[in-house]
Design goal:
13 strands, binds uridine 5'-triphosphate
Length: 307
């Protein structure tokens, strides 16, 4: 098939300072939503989109991530001896085929663009995906699969986008798009974290990309931009000015910013409610909490519940 995408880069070298002190010794990507770490959601989404080669850009202190994708022979034999087949089945989702995972190190945290650039020698001359695991997207058709399907027609480069509140533009990369009301839009420009009064739209770039290898060549010469970091959006913007081949997909689904505490808690609630084993009990508890919030706020037990 033309425009096939088989490699994905997972930049996971950030400090995750918004989750300190937890992230002092646990990579942010290992924080669980119910029982699966964020990185597992990203891997499952990539697999569903046909990705076969997984490239992690890591840094010091991220060895828990590497261990997570390794076999755990002692644990596996203990579970097998105790007849815990259902737990062994759960462990299976962490299995990666030999030679399908590569780790490259980002020695200095110089920004997302730099992290992606660190994987350049593993990409070669083909389009690749970038997935930021802290953006968790709950969707019937996984977001990257939606993008790969759209990309099969458009080619070029593709970013995932969603509308944000106009006053929130300064927290995102924001798109300037051509006319059109369909899910796929042509991108005329992108600005990193603009103030609402100068933002070209309220369409934000979310952590999913399909990129041409030429983006890596641009990154060779991109200097630090917004926030003193080497920005991936600056390299994609160069594709627009040179080749006008960048598209945005308004994906169907709900995105949770699990890099922020509030987004992480919202995702925990959403996935907790969807869990076949926990959902009913957890939902009943949440209903109780919400009811307590609207009742007498001076009741000590209720105040304790909402705290
Ligand atoms: P963030 O902006 O969320 O930074 O990075 P962070 O360090 O992970 O978290 P905070 O802001 O300190 O809480 C977005 C993505 O880019 C990766 C991060 O790992 C995350 O997946 N990243 C960022 C790198 O891999 N290297 C960098 O130099 C910067």
């Amino acid at each position: 098939m033309q425009n096939k995408v088989t490699k994905a880069i997972f930049p996971v070298a950030g400090f995750g300072t918004r989750f300190l002190p937890a992230t002092k010794s646990i990579p942010k990507e290992m924080l669980p939503l119910v029982d699966r770490p964020l990185i597992q959601y990203a891997i499952d989404e990539a697999r569903a989109a046909g990705i076969t080669d997984f490239i992690f850009v890591t840094s010091r202190g991220k060895s828990a991530l590497e261990d997570y994708f390794d076999r755990a022979p002692e644990l596996e034999s203990a579970l097998a001896e105790n007849g815990k087949q259902h737990l062994l089945d759960r462990l299976k989702q962490t299995e990666m085929g030999s030679g399908t995972v590569a780790y490259v190190r980002q020695h200095e945290r110089l920004g997302l663009g730099h992290a992606v650039w660190c994987a350049r020698h593993l990409i070669g001359n083909e389009a690749f995906a970038v997935i930021l695991p802290d953006d968790v997207i709950d969707a019937e058709t996984p977001c990257l699969k939606q993008m790969v399907d759209a990309y099969a027609t458009t080619g070029g480069n593709m970013v995932a986008t969603m509308e944000v509140a106009p006053e929130a533009t300064s927290a995102y990369g924001i798109l300037d798009v051509g006319p059109g009301s369909g899910p796929t839009l042509s991108v005329r420009g992108m600005v990193e974290k603009p103030k609402p009064e100068v933002a070209p739209s309220n369409l934000a770039i979310i952590g999913r990309y399909i990129l041409r290898p030429s983006v890596l060549t641009h990154l060779d010469s991109i200097k630090a931009g917004a926030g003193g970091e080497i920005q991936l959006t600056d390299a994609i913007a160069r594709e627009i000015s040179e080749k006008d081949n960048v598209h945005a997909l308004r994906f169907r689904g709900k995105r949770y910013d699990c890099g922020s505490k509030s987004g992480y808690l919202q995702a925990t609630v959403a996935f907790g409610l969807q869990d076949p084993e926990l959902g009913d009990e957890f939902g009943a508890y949440l209903a109780e909490v919400m009811a307590a919030r609207t009742d007498d706020p001076t009741d000590a037990r209720q105040v304790q519940l909402v705290r």
